[in-house]
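Appendix C: a fully annotated inverse folding record. The material below is reproduced so that readers can follow the format used throughout the book. The structure is listed first as tokens, followed by the designed sequence.
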């Protein structure tokens, strides 16, 4: 493609992108295609000869777009937000154009130094102690794996990295039974093993019970196990519950156990002074992760991972083949030593763009609004006798179910599952679910970038109408 052709198509794409963002509400929120429908429309073999970009765009519109679930639709209330914003998209265009591979300082000094500064900005914005240092990872799952690997090495004196795990003893990792599945995946990858992940029961508000955590740790020590890491969650996946950080931290401090904090979505709420209570006990944290690509309007992928002791992190991951040996080593941050991947994207650029575009007050205003409309939704639900809220509403996640008279628990589960599918199949809204104390639970997340109270009110009206239509 020649420069003049690129310029022409780039302008066309900019118009397409602007139109999409302006009209995204007109698409079905969740893709309504059947399995295999997209696959079967794509040729089995690649073309032998060059095809025009216009042909690519035609197929993009006709084949790909019907199979897209529109996460940027303000009627997307499922899972968690994966937000973007115009300032993030524009920066992503620059990142793609530069095509920089930012593995070490020398491969793009600006990328490394901007990343260092952006992590300092984020650290101060969310209220972590000033000594913490950070790195941008691709996802919270990767950051959690990095935390558990680092905890493993610290606990064993870095012996597993050098000698393997044969003589290291049996390590244990602890989390609540509401913790994200990435922790289980990380203990499997790390070699600690799924059977050595101890899931601690939760209290009535679905937060970890610190007394039961303490009892399990003391029991394990007595039986010869080696406590390695505790994962506390600020904003669990199912209910956005908040584990009691100080109580957990004190237990970790007393027993010299690495404390990792997963605040993947709720971490963004820490930019609000009124949510700093979630970080009470911050002095005990060893590592901390949250995702600007969830609720800080920076498109995927952009995960902020912080550590109290960067030296321990680097010692876990560093390796120095000759081709990466540079004159600046030791004088700068070579972020390929701060996690699993060698290759790294210039993610800091879009974070810089977003923070400057919104300003810290603009970010706080939008996050506050999302929390406010979740609170208003909970009031709407509470007013209806045939619906009930099933978990405390802390940030922007509301858990509820349809509960008409005359149905037993098994029937209610079947009814709510049917309601969920019928709502999602309509294409008008998209909800996801969880199971709380055996109850099939609808989750509604009011944190999409452009969601408003009107969207939530319309969604709630549709939910009530659909639910009552199932039993009329």
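Designed amino acids, in order:
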């Amino acid at each position: 493609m020649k420069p003049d052709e690129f310029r022409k198509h780039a302008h066309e794409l900019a118009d397409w992108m602007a139109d999409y963002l302006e009209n995204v509400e007109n698409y079905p929120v969740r893709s309504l295609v059947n399995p295999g429908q997209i696959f079967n429309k794509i040729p089995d073999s690649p073309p032998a000869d060059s095809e025009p970009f216009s042909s690519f765009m035609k197929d993009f519109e006709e084949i790909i777009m019907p199979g897209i679930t529109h996460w940027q639709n303000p009627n997307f209330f499922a899972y968690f937000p994966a937000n973007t914003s115009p300032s993030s998209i524009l920066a992503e265009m620059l990142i793609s154009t530069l095509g920089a591979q930012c593995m070490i300082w020398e491969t793009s000094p600006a990328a490394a130094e901007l990343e260092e500064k952006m992590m300092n900005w984020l650290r101060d914005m969310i209220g972590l102690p000033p000594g913490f240092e950070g790195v941008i990872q691709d996802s919270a799952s990767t950051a959690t794996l990095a935390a558990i690997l680092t905890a493993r090495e610290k606990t064993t004196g870095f012996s597993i990295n050098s000698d393997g795990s044969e003589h290291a003893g049996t390590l244990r990792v602890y989390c609540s039974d509401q913790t994200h599945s990435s922790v289980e995946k990380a203990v499997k990858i790390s070699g600690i093993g799924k059977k050595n992940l101890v899931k601690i029961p939760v209290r009535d508000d679905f937060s970890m019970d610190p007394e039961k955590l303490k009892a399990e740790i003391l029991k394990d020590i007595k039986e010869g196990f080696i406590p390695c890491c505790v994962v506390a969650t600020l904003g669990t996946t199912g209910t956005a519950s908040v584990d009691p950080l100080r109580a957990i931290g004190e237990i970790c401090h007393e027993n010299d156990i690495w404390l990792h904090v997963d605040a993947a979505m709720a971490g963004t709420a820490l930019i609000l002074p009124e949510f700093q209570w979630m970080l009470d006990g911050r002095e005990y944290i060893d590592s901390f992760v949250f995702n600007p690509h969830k609720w800080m309007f920076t498109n995927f992928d952009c995960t902020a991972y912080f550590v109290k002791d960067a030296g321990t992190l680097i010692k876990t991951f560093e390796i120095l083949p000759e081709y990466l040996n540079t004159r600046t080593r030791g004088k700068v941050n070579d972020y390929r030593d701060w996690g699993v991947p060698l290759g790294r994207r210039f993610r800091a650029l879009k974070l810089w763009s977003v923070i400057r575009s919104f300003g810290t007050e603009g970010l706080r205003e939008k996050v506050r609004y999302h929390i406010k409309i979740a609170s208003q939704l909970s009031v709407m639900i509470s007013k209806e006798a045939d619906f009930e809220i099933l978990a405390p509403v802390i940030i922007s996640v509301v858990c509820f179910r349809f509960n008409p008279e005359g149905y037993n628990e098994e029937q209610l589960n079947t009814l709510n599952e049917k309601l969920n599918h019928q709502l999602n199949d309509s294409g008008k809204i998209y909800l996801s679910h969880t199971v709380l104390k055996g109850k099939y639970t609808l989750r509604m997340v009011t944190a999409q970038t452009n969601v408003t109270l009107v969207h939530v009110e319309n969604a709630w009206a549709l939910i009530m109408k659909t639910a009552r239509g199932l039993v009329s």
